[in-house]
Amino acid sequence: MNPVACIVFLAFVAVATAAPQPLQGQPEDPNPIDTVTTCGGFVETSSASIEFQVGGSIRADMRCVWIIRGPYVSQRFNLVQSGLKETDGLFLSGHSRSGITAQQKLATVGQNITINSRTAILTLSVGHAPTLGFKLEFFSSGSSENSVLSGHALLTTAKGNYTYPVNGGQYGNNENALFAIAPTVPGQPTLRFTRVNLENDSGCTYDSIRVYNWFDNDYLQVVRFCGTTIPTSVTFQDGAGLVAFVTDSSVTSTGFEFQYE
Ligand SMILES: *[C@@H]1O[C@H](CO)[C@@H](O)[C@H](O)[C@H]1NC(C)=O
Ligand SMILES: *[C@@H]1O[C@H](CO)[C@@H](O)[C@H](O)[C@H]1NC(C)=O
Ligand SMILES: *[C@@H]1O[C@H](CO)[C@@H](O)[C@H](O)[C@H]1NC(C)=O
Ligand SMILES: [Ca+2]
């Protein structure tokens, strides 16, 4: 082969070999590698079977929140088995620095919902009557993505308090933290901030705290604030809420403390 023909031939071989590429990045695990059976939790894995009270009953008005974090950009959820009723709901949304995406209801067995964000929020909202358990599977796949979740907590006691940073000192730059309040004994907790010290600017575009109230099967943002002014308290009348904290790339402060009961 002369050099030109050789290059043309090699180029053809390269195109032919590169052509079939159905998977972008990491494929899903063939089967879930972890099992979660608690009401709510922080689940950080590439795949999991989430089984709550399968074959058993769940009390009326129960709320459970799972913060699910996959290593790849796409999180697929598939409902495998369900005893939930029409008035109950399993809801999924994505969380990132910019906020929380709209809720999607996982209602029928076999249904898939894919969340294109590394952090997904799964919320179980039981109606005013007892119900039966469910099982779903979660699989992470796709390209690796380095977005961080710098802090997280799931508060499930009837009342409590929380401080961030947990060990005092200053929070970091580029924080993206998420805290869920979902008491396992149904209630209507009121959230009160007792100390707030964030970088301040008029639109809270640098560092901010957002509070979301679970209402009408959605997380509604009720307040966004920064600086040192304590916001008015928020009652989670539907039994659950979220606190999301983000910071920009410069100027830090000492964070915040809240209590709820
Ligand atoms: C859900 O996704 C899986 C994996 O991609 C697929 O095999 C299955 O057919 C999907 N189910 C439905 C109902 O689309
Ligand atoms: C915060 O909670 C701890 C237990 O978790 C408790 O000992 C402490 O008294 C609480 N502090 C306030 C200010 O409520
Ligand atoms: C925060 O910024 C706002 C708007 O610039 C200003 O009105 C307010 O006084 C500031 N608060 C503090 C505590 O600096
Ligand atoms: Ca800052």
From TrEMBL:
The keyword Signal applies. Residues 150-261 form the CUB domain. Transmembrane segments: none annotated. Residues 1-18 form the signal peptide. InterPro entries: CUB_dom, Sperma_CUB_dom_sf. Keywords: Disulfide bond, Repeat, Signal. The keyword Repeat applies. Pfam families: CUB. PANTHER family: CUB DOMAIN-CONTAINING PROTEIN (PTHR24251:SF37), OVOCHYMASE-RELATED (PTHR24251). This is Cubilin. It comes from Folsomia candida.
